[in-house]
Design goal:
Elements (H helix, E strand, L loop, with lengths): L1 H33 L6 E7 L4 E6 L5 E6 L4 E6 L10 E6 L3 E8 L11 E8 L4 E8 L1 E5 L4 E9 L5 E9 L4 E9 L10 H20 L11 E2 L6 E2 L2 H6 L22 E2 L6 E2 L2 H5 L17
Antiparallel strand pairs: 1-2, 2-3, 3-4, 5-6, 6-7, 7-8, 9-10, 10-11, 11-12, 13-14, 15-16
Length: 297
């Protein structure tokens, strides 16, 4: 009888120790999250019978970290092929099964299009592996609703065509799809009288310079850019007379006063792009949700 009682007590103690251990793991995870420095940001906590993990972002943008409460060790997770990216990486956030990562790639110098490309990857929490998810021209995300809008353009040389927006949750599940027509009213279509007038004037200017003095350096035609969208105009009057798609309804373009550069730098995060249009088309990780880069002067 006494032997049976001792056995029952041993089983109860062992069970209590197991429950206590599980509680300790949860407590360790909670304390670890509570003690994360201000420079770090929690991504997701994985807590079940087999795993007690905390995923979080540090100060760098090309890695994130996984803390194991059971082993009390931290693993650095390196985003693959990071050396080939020419723009900062944005770790968007975590869903129930995946962590979503995005990065932008500028249009190449040999590319006729000035649209950039945005690459979206998923890191699976179960398999702990990365996979390429989708490619678009730009993206916007909302941490509150845990949704990302992947925006793609199919446009002609004048910027006219279609805009497609695919909305996903952070696990990569398609929630909605939208399509709309886009028009760029700032371009002059080939064959119009305005285009002919522009070409005739350009030819006349070239003739004047070539017949007067071959050693005179021909002045470059000035270019004026909008600081919010990168649209290009020949005069400041034209720039400030046209509506800017990046600003509120009916708001006009605002002149960028920094002069032309080989690369333009975002004043908030330091990202660099070849054109102001590329820069202002992409989301800035240092500004609010969906806010774009703003060029430094």
């Amino acid at each position: 009888m006494r032997k049976n009682v001792l056995m029952i007590i041993a089983i109860v103690c062992a069970t209590s120790m197991m429950v206590s251990c599980n509680k300790d793991y949860q407590k360790l995870s909670t304390e670890f999250i509570r003690n994360l420095p201000d420079s770090c940001e929690l991504l997701v906590q994985v807590e079940n019978e087999a795993e007690h993990l905390v995923y979080y972002i540090g100060q760098g943008t090309d890695v994130f970290f996984c803390y194991n409460a059971e082993t009390e060790k931290t693993k650095t997770i390196v985003i693959p092929d990071v050396e080939s990216y020419d723009a900062p990486i944005t770790i968007i956030g975590a869903g129930k099964e995946n962590i979503m990562i995005c990065h932008n790639e500028k249009a190449g110098d040999s590319d006729d299009s000035d649209l950039s490309s945005a690459y979206v990857q998923l890191y699976n929490l179960k398999t702990q592996e990365f996979k390429k998810f989708t490619i678009c021209n730009e993206y916007e995300f909302d941490e509150g609703t845990k949704q990302i809008s992947c925006i793609s353009y199919d446009v002609d040389r004048y910027g006219d065509g279609r805009r497609t927006t695919d909305i996903y949750d952070f696990d990569g599940n398609l929630l909605a799809k939208k399509e709309s027509e886009v028009c760029n009213f700032n371009e002059v279509p080939t064959g119009t009288l305005a285009a002919k007038y522009h070409v005739d004037n350009q030819d006349a200017n070239e003739t004047t310079y070539s017949t007067t003095n071959e050693n005179v350096e021909r002045p470059q035609t000035p270019h004026y850019y909008c600081m919010f969208c990168g649209a290009e105009f020949k005069t400041i009057r034209d720039l400030t007379s046209n509506t800017c798609q990046r600003r509120g309804f009916g708001e006009k373009h605002v002149l960028y006063e920094g002069g032309e550069k080989e690369k333009y730098t975002c004043r908030f995060c330091g990202a660099q792009f070849r054109t102001i249009r590329d820069l202002t088309s992409n989301s800035c990780i240092r500004r609010g949700v969906g806010e774009k880069h703003i060029p430094a002067v």
